[in-house]
Amino acid sequence: MExxxxxxxxxxxxxxxxxxxxxxEGWAVCINYSTHPLPAQELEQQLTDQGCRCMVAQADVxxxxxxxxxxxxxxxxxxxxxxxxxxxxxxxxxxxxDVTPQLWRRMFAVNVDGAYHTIQAVLPGMLHHHQGTxxxxxxxxxxxxxxxxxxxxxxxxxxxxxxxxxxAELAPSxxxxxxxxxxxxxxxxxxxLPEGTLPQLEAETPLGRLGTPxxxxxxxxxxxxxxxxxxxxxxxxxxxxxxxx
Length: 245
Ligand code: NAP
Fold this sequence. Notes:
The chain is α/β, with parallel strands linked by helices.
């Protein structure tokens, strides 16, 4: 199978670093985004200028038809997706009693249904070739308590369950499924945190700094590479500077 990767939510933040890392490692990379085309197109240009193979694809991962169409387009242009990185995600800070049904549904639609849609779309190609790798992006808040982020935490815990169970189901088909659980990573997502929270989180991190998108890209690169991680499946790789120790 050719090295063809789909990274969801790759226009900004962690996904952007993952897409760039994989492209530099020789993967043809589809840069998915939902609402902001400019950063996605800018990344495509940068990587193309560096001699990498990439394309941009708009699709809201919560929309199964849009995801299916995106995957059909990649397969039509390049061939079957051999690496799927489920990175697209949204978060939100609020008291549990303020979580409306709409907010709850949207969080699950993007963070959980999104992964379901992309996996369903790429799986026939992987099963056909008896090969493939899936890396899901969970969070430390899917592993430990997150006050005022109950909905987000539930979706990220669901990704842990998805990763482990699907890994067990797909291992006999030669497909590995792992996850990365990032700690606190400096991206736009942190902008919604109340003032003063970031220095506090930084101080609570044993390695003494916030994580960077590149830290997570390196972890994904490792899990994507059959040579380095070929015997790993169903694992949740925590990349958090020791935050959860
Ligand atoms: P970010 O900076 O807010 O970027 C989010 C990315 O996801 C953007 O490219 C955005 O595209 C895309 N996206 C959002 N909704 C989408 C949808 N419905 N369909 C397709 N793409 C969508 O977030 P980030 O911090 O890089 O987070 C990336 C992942 O890491 C998320 O799953 C997040 O939960 C997880 N994570 C982050 C942290 C952290 O501290 N930052 C920690 C643990 C886990 P548009 O701009 O086009 O909307």
